[in-house]
Amino acid sequence: MLSKRLQTLVNLISSGDFVAADIGTDHGLLPINLIKNKIVKKVYAVDINVKPLKIAEKNIQKHNFQKEIPTILSDGLAFTTQISDEIEYCFLAGLGSGTILEILNKDNDKIKNYLICSNTEIEQIRKFTIAKNYFIQYESFFIDQKHRYWLIWINKQKSAKKLENIFLGDFKWFEQNLEYKIYLENQIQFLEKIFLKIENDEDAKLKLFNKIKQMKEYVQLWN
Known about the structure:
This protein is of the alpha/beta class. The chain contains 7 helices and 7 strands. The protein has helices at about 5-10, 30-35, 50-60, 95-105, 125-130, 180-195, 200-220, and strands at about 20-25, 40-45, 70-75, 90-95, 115-120, 135-145, 145-155. Strands 3-2-1-4-5-7-6 form a 7-stranded mixed sheet, with helices on both faces. Helix 6 runs antiparallel to helix 7. The model has no long low-confidence stretch (mean pLDDT about 95).
């Protein structure tokens, strides 16, 4: 059974004759689920570390999915230069946004969609999307086993639409998401305490003041 984090990603995509890739596959649970439920025809299970990849291989063998789930030892997307498949869905789940951005530096035309689940805020990933003129198809925020996750689906079709809020995300994705509202309210309280402690740095104080102001205005959208 998949975690809420992984199941949320799987629920977004349509079944079809697609190839997917799971970067940082760990024990291979996501690829196994995708093949077992006939959501895609093939999944590359990719990891930079040998130990989890060996565990993934054993799990894949238990289900006799070796043909449908090739395992690859690779640093992020480096392996894509060695394959002929086009990747409809590239999963990046459970990593921090900094690490994800390093992986996205090797973005290439073989990949059509990124389904990203980060355990840190994704403002920089939004900026990457805008710089590439890609389309944000969906965003979400949720709690899984007391951990916070930001989800973003990047469709690589070119976009003419301007992103409304790079810092916090377009509100249309979050208007029914009370978990995100509570998270922002807690962040505001946390940042206000920091603001009161800042001395002799007016630039830092002004920057933090403006950040808190933006967050408060965003939270007001739920009212």
